[in-house]
Amino acid sequence: MKTALIQFKAGHYKIRGTDQSVEGMKFPLIEHFKQGKNGAYVTVDGAAQPGFPERSIRIRIESPQDYEIVDSNFDDVKKNALKKTAKDNETDEQVMDRIGKRFEILDEMTRAAKEGNVRAMIVSGPPGVGKSYGVEEQLNKDSIFDDVSGNSRKFEVVKGAMSAIGLYAKLYKFSNPKNVVVFDDCDSVLLDDLSLNILKAALDTSKKRYISWNTDSRYLDQKVFQIVLSSRVQRSLSPTSNSKTLDPRN
After folding, report:
1. Where are the domains of the chain?
2. H helix runs in the chain, sequence order
């Protein structure tokens, strides 16, 4: 896909609360000059310059004269080459800063998920960089008061294999507000159609979500009975039916 490469004569972008000048810098254009509520801006691909977010960003400018098109036939090949050059030219400090920003975002998203402001998130990346550790560390911090007061923690990390019925039971157990279930290297959930349907229902965008298991299951009968007794939570279960409905409120 072809776009344009622009060079800024003036403008700035806020990084960690500090205005960073973009004078003389080149970016692939995403959207031309626009006037917004907080001022004028132009949207570009930030991945073209080291130290900038690897996504579309808005550069604040005063007028369309603050930038010029230097290549109107800027295709994907040129764009990828520019991004590679930007990464190759990164200093060690810039690399550490970029990685640090990613983990700051991960911490913020984890807290948002714990508070129920974010319904779900997917964390991906190379093995061994601290993805799982970062998420678990934030959840552990939020569980300090539960630990002190002797209450059960409101999250669980699931590793290894999990069946569809196991997934349903796990979501049932952690269906209260501000409860979190973390699937870490639990790929079996993504390889089973029934498990995927359960996940889709749990992540539905409606205010109330209901998940039903309408087949007989001795495991589910025993599991749900144990959960109800241990948590002393009232659930609506019909004694004459094998249908059980889960209401994940968080």
Report:
1. 3-90, 91-138, 154-246
2. 76-88, 92-115, 131-142, 144-149, 164-173, 193-202, 218-231
